[in-house]
Amino acid sequence: QVQLQESGGGSVQSGGSLRLSCAASGYTDSSGCMGWFRQAPGKEREGVATITSDGRLNYADSVKGRFTISRDNAKNTLSLQMNSLKPEDTAMYYCAARRLSWCVMGRNGFSYWGQGTQVTVSS
Asked: Residues 49-105: pLDDT tens digits?
């Protein structure tokens, strides 16, 4: 059974930084795509960034140049470094994984989800 556990959320002021981490257990097929999604109150869950097992990256336009996704296949961990945070980045952030090797930004493409970690950015 695949389990994903996020950590690292919190409250920061605009312009600050946070680093999110996701630990995967039972995810033995490290060739699958992993990603970060977020959901703000009253909004749809949206893709933030994805990464293939060989390091191909994709970012939402709203976070390009500010967020960096990375993964350690040997440790089964996923990270998201978030810099220059804005109030509009406030959301619950979710780690996600799928068995297929290629990445998509749509939430329906992912089978496994963490419980989420809250990020709040104040102006």
From this structure: 999 999 999 999 999 999 999 999 999 999 999 999 999 999 999 999 999 989 989
Rounded Cα distance between 123 and 121, Å, is 7
42's CB contacts (< 8 A; 6+ apart) are: none
- Rounded CA-CA distance 90/25 in Å is 27
Instruction: Please report the beta strands in 40-122, taking only residues with DSSP state E, as ranges in sequence order.
Output: 46-51, 57-59, 67-72, 77-82, 91-97, 112-113, 117-122
Closest by CA to 92, choosing from 5, 1, 9, is 9
Q: Which two tokens stand for residue 60?
A: 């939402």
